[in-house]
Design a protein that fits this description.
mainly alpha, globular, single chain
Length: 310
């Protein structure tokens, strides 16, 4: 798609303007989705950021595990009681991401460093507590789902452990008359799919696809019926997951038409301009990176690549 290539080229030409974490995000997604040569160079140049070779790995992981939540996130007030109920979730879920990046991109197994910071029993107990707490799963959404998939698929290397049918049922409990809960539902289902793909680096097992396509059935109807209320990040998350699951949807055309009308006056990148849930705090080049990398990914077939730097 011509617009996707223009946006990709604009980000590459101006990558020096991105914050280091945004640049790493862009590179890791483009390497996984496209096997992009420039993206692998970005990941090589991000080695110091992620590995921190001048520090002890145990200290790096321990610091992340103990990181306190700061700032506000989507549905902040709804989520606040559950972050208080599970105070170590935020830091531990970040640590699991770091363990994943170290292994999948730089070939470093950091699980022992993780276990030095938090025991396997504590990790197991946190997961089991979340899986028994339907309301926490529902409201924490991305944070809880990412934790469960990273813990099972990356740390434990367990492929058959998560209750996907239960996740489908939890998705039916959202109040779809509430825009915040619509957003949480979209993130809940899409991050089940993204987690199963280990963040775009592998195909989903054929026997699991019907379950994840059930999630996409629900999201397709939800987005179709609430189109003007839903921001482009959420819509594009759906399209990316449709690609991962080889799911055909009439929403591709409709969402792309909104994207084509939503180019920023400041450059060749997409911002929210034509829906009722515009993200005014995410409208510059850097803060729009997530939305734009999703758009680029959504325009091509899903052919996952290894992101391992050699």
């Amino acid at each position: 798609m011509e617009l996707a290539e223009k946006i990709y080229n604009y980000y590459i030409e101006n990558k020096h303007l991105l914050d280091s974490d945004k640049l790493f995000h862009f590179g890791s997604r483009m390497a996984a989705w496209r096997g992009d040569i420039v993206a692998y160079d970005i990941l090589r140049n991000s080695y110091d950021l992620i590995v921190q070779p001048n520090r002890n790995l145990n200290d790096v992981i321990s610091e992340i595990v103990n990181k306190a939540q700061t700032g506000k996130r989507n549905a902040h007030e709804l989520r606040k009681p559950f972050f208080e109920k599970y105070p170590n979730l935020f830091g531990v879920h970040l640590a699991l991401f770091r363990v994943r990046h170290l292994e999948i991109i730089y070939g470093i197994d950091a699980r022992n460093a993780l276990f030095n910071a938090i025991s396997m029993d504590e990790l197991e107990n946190l997961e089991q507590s979340l899986l028994k707490d339907d309301e926490a799963l529902k409201i924490l959404s991305t944070f809880a789902i990412n934790y469960c998939y990273l813990f099972e698929r990356v740390v434990k290397k367990n492929e058959q452990s998560l209750p996907i049918e239960k996740f489908i049922e939890i998705g039916k409990r959202y109040n779809t008359n509430n825009i915040q809960e619509i957003q949480l539902l979209i993130y809940f289902y899409t991050h089940c799919i993204i987690g199963e793909s280990n963040f775009y680096t592998r195909d989903i097992q054929i026997e699991k696809l019907p379950l994840y396509r059930q999630m996409l059935d629900t999201l397709e109807d939800l987005i179709d019926n609430n189109f003007d209320k839903i921001n482009l990040d959420n819509k594009l998350e759906f399209l990316v997951c449709a690609r991962i699951c080889h799911y055909e949807s009439n929403l591709f055309k409709r969402i792309y038409e909104e994207c084509e009308k939503s180019i920023s006056p400041e450059g060749i990148f997409i911002i929210d301009r034509h829906n009722q849930n515009v993200q005014k705090d995410r409208s510059n080049f850097t803060s729009s990176e997530h939305r734009n990398v999703l758009f680029i990914m959504s325009t091509t077939e899903y052919l996952p690549h290894s992101t391992l730097i050699r």
